[in-house]
Design brief:
With 222 residues, the chain is of the alpha+beta class. The protein is 51% helix and 12% strand. It has a 4-stranded mixed beta sheet. Strands 3-4 form a two-stranded antiparallel sheet. Strand 1 (10-16), helix 1 (21-37) and strand 2 (41-47) form a beta-alpha-beta unit.
Length: 222
């Protein structure tokens, strides 16, 4: 996805998952900083599964975070409030709720790749982030995935056929493995111009500084 401008587009590979709230925040912070600075972004979404071995029914999100990170109910509530506030400032709506579940996203990544072949990978990513965090949908459910594809103008029957065929299974696995081999263990992770790695949601001002430095020099970001 590249926005129109007379300036050359800055390639950014964003390694992320559609059930990662900080991925939604980080991208929107970067996009905000880029718009403010007049920098054109050429976004390439790269797959990463936070929970590749998760059961089909998913897990209660709060229980999952408590087991995985040791988060208490109070800490979880604080983070949800923080994310909601950050999202609101950036134009992204988080609607967390009691009983919210987290799911495996392997098919979601396949759908994004399928949409990318049709020039709509970025739109598909945004639709899936909204489907999960705003609309509370199960993004491992093919019906929800097909519906998301239809919301961005893609053919639902073709989307379903692509998922059922498993056509993109191997390529998504290969891309996931590639980024893990590059040392990516958490998301969001952003690679600018193919060589400068920035991890985590950095905030608008930090992204603005990164974009400025990339425009004037070639420092290595870690």
């Amino acid at each position: 996805m590249a926005e129109t401008s007379n300036s050359p587009a800055l390639r950014v590979d964003i390694i992320s998952d559609v059930v990662c709230p900080w991925c939604a925040v980080g991208y929107n912070q970067l996009a905000f900083a880029a718009r403010r600075a007049g920098v054109v972004l050429d976004i390439h979404w790269q797959p990463f599964e936070l929970n590749p071995d998760m059961a089909p029914e998913g897990e209660d999100l709060r229980e999952h975070l408590a087991a995985k990170y040791g988060s208490t109910a109070e800490q979880s509530a604080q983070v949800r409030a923080q994310l909601t506030e950050l999202g609101e400032a950036l134009g992204f709506t988080f609607r967390f709720f009691d009983g919210m579940r987290i799911y495996n996203t392997f098919q979601a990544h396949q759908l994004i790749e399928w949409a990318e072949e049709r020039g709509k990978g970025h739109a598909m990513k945004q639709a899936l982030l909204a489907a999960y965090f705003t609309d509370g949908q199960d993004v491992s459910d093919p019906r929800a995935l097909v519906e998301a594809a239809e919301t961005i103008g893609l053919n639902g029957a073709e989307a379903r056929a692509a998922l059922e065929s498993g056509k993109h299974t191997d390529s998504v696995r290969q891309r996931e493995a590639f980024w893990v081999q590059q040392g990516i263990r958490g998301v969001p992770a952003m690679v600018f111009n193919g060589r400068h790695l920035v991890t985590g949601a950095q905030g608008v001002e930090n992204y603005a500084s990164i974009l400025e430095q990339l425009g004037t020099a070639e420092p290595e970001f870690r």
